[in-house]
Amino acid sequence: MSLDVPAALLERAEAGQVDDAEFVDCVRRSLPYAWAVVSEVAARAAATPAEFADHAVPPPSETERGQLLRALASDAIRGGLERHFGVKLAFQNCHRVAAFKLAAVGGQTYQRFISPLAQIRNQSPELRDC
Fold it and tell me: What is the pTM of this model?
């Protein structure tokens, strides 16, 4: 299960009454490691003149890796995180997470990061951890 959804939130969702803040809070509580990684890269992206900040430290266990994969593989979860933090998230391999400033999306740096070439380069034995 990706998210630990309280019964009351599930009832409101079934009635079509869940707002983005409630959803994002559910993500924060359910996937604390993923939340911490995304929070950290989003904060660093906001604080730097660079177009993005990234996190490339392998997770401490498969539990944390699973959280990261669930958060970034789900369109709904990733979208909620992007709206909450005001960034565009990019993901390579099993743990490299980048937060791009919205103004950088579509630019050369972003296009290079999300390219097949970048993904393949990130699969070299010294960079691969999954």
Answer: 0.90
**Could you read off the pLDDT of 95-115 as tens digits, one per residue?**
889 999 999 999 999 999 888
Distances (CA, A) of 126 to 3, 9, 21, 130: 32, 43, 39, 11
Residues constituting the chain: 130
Cα–Cα distance between 57 and 47 in angstroms, integer?
Answer: 20
The structure tokens 């743990």 sit at: 95
Do residues 99 and 38 lie in contact, with contact meaning Cβ atoms separated by under 8 Å?
Answer: yes
What residue type is 97 in one-letter code? V
Q: Phi first, then psi: give them for residue 99, nearest 5 degrees.
A: -115, 115
User: Contact 77/71 with Cβ under 8 angstroms?
Assistant: yes
Find the largest Cα–Cα distance for the chain.
49
Residue 28 per-residue DSSP state = H
Please give the helix or strand (H or E) that residue 97 lies within, else none. strand 96-101
φ, ψ at 104 (rounded to 5°): -90, -15
- Written as one letter, the residue type at 4 is D
